[in-house]
Specification:
The protein is mainly alpha-helical. The chain has 28 helices and no strands.
Amino acid sequence: MSLHYVDWIIIIVYGLITIGIGLWFSKKAGKGLEEYFVAGRTLPWWIAGTSIAATYFATDAPLAAASLVRQYGIYGNWLWWYEASGVMMIVFFYAKLWRRANVITDAEFIELRYSGRAASILRAFTALYHGLLKNLIVMGFVLLAMMKFSQVILGFNPLYTLTICVTVAMVYTMTSGLRGVVYTDLMQFITGTLGTIAFAALVLIEVGGPSQLVEKISSMEGNNPGTLDLIPQSDHMSSLQFISYVVLILILWSRSAQGDGYLVQRLFAAKNEKHSVLAALWFNFTANVMMTWPWIIVGLGSLIIFPLATASPELLADPELAYPMMIVEIVPIGLKGLIIASFLSAFMSTMDTHLCWGGSYMVNDIYKRFIKKNASDFHYVKASRWSIFILAIFAAISAWQMESIERGWLFIIQLTAGIAIVMLLRWYWWRVNPWAEISAMIGSFIFANGLFLAKCLYKIGLISSESFEQIDVLFASEYDMLRATFILVTCTVIWVTVALCTRPDDKEHLRNFYRKVKPSGWWGEIAKSCPEVKPTGSFSDNWIGWFIGIIFIYSSILGIGYLVIDQSMLGLGLLLISVIGAILTISLAKKSFGE
């Protein structure tokens, strides 16, 4: 596709504004690690929450959403909607605790919660596990999406795209630190949201509105019978697929219920507990309601513009190409530039966040903690910039090895499933110790990589071909959610056993943690020895708030969905419920931090 000069002007103006923001904050970013990585802990809730949402809106997200619609139907997007339940747990149970911890990274939190050599080992292991392994996988599929997008839209060679994107993201993030990242995220969120909403509106106009959208999709040959299902229906999928979605929605949300990584980095950077709680709530609404439906509408429109029965071999082989192909097909001059700028926004907001977050682990939790403990702030900021440079190079290598965004998502679910429950309970049960976390992380890593490990064992003759074939069957894609559930349950049994069979953590260290963070839950003699500590918020009220919050988010998602598929009365009814739910959720969220 050749772009008009108007489109190029829009793209260039966007690029110059982004660079300008980075340069504006570069001097402030050099003041120290706390300024560089948590913006001096001064962010208001709407900036912090919008920044999280902008990161969530990565270049992989629109491509994957449209691909899920083409392959499975609307219900395929429960592959991320399920996380709304987990994020609502953050709102009512964890956001205020994270802010009280007053740390720079969630890996640093390890030595606040635990003591001794085991805590130091776990801190380093956590930084490497999340900052390198998980982080590089995420950046890999974000870069992969940008490569696919540029190849379809501009005809760029993938290696050329990869080189340009990594260089821009690296230089920008090295310069600005977190404060520049979050304020750029605000601009990127507005650009990205406006661009995708305008694109979705164009698609609806092109196909004749919601009624024609439904009629055409329902009458076309080759479409999945469950294409317009908002909720998984057992009539339109195999029993195994249905069970997989049930366990995803009802169980696996727990893996995101404590929050980690870039999300909690923004909570650390919030002004206070109130702003951290409201930031998490705002993010939950913007990410799951505002942002996803425009991508889904484009995916539905692609089934009409590029029907499955007559689609090109390239599109059939890689349905993630549908979104950029729709831009080429129906977007007019001017708006093309806006949408491409929105994609650049999505890319930058995700890459700069993950580079900044990964760099915080490498410097704060590895370099400063274990290698050079008493250097100057200037030295650590310089080390942070070098760490971002190194991470960017490894992210490019990761992207070059990937083929599918969806498979990357599923691997992350399995990789983190085994640590879900231990991460939740370490705040509320005094008996959790560092060895429990270490065992959960090792177990989750082994089970998530079971097929790779089995291949290695098979090649060196330690398992038979029959055993390898059986393992290979268990790692088929239809078993993804069941395998993640198995990992969660098995690793929970492992870590609970390890916790009860090893010594409790140091009592004085636990008392100091309890006094600082003020958690509720099962703290037994620790709580009795600290009678002056009064946890804020009621445990029962928090559970009620969580439940009402779920009603608010899911009635919003489904209400918009039913309007899209031309079931107006049901859609409007659900949106009315969502408004009432929003009012109650905000009220209970404020109560949870004592306002």
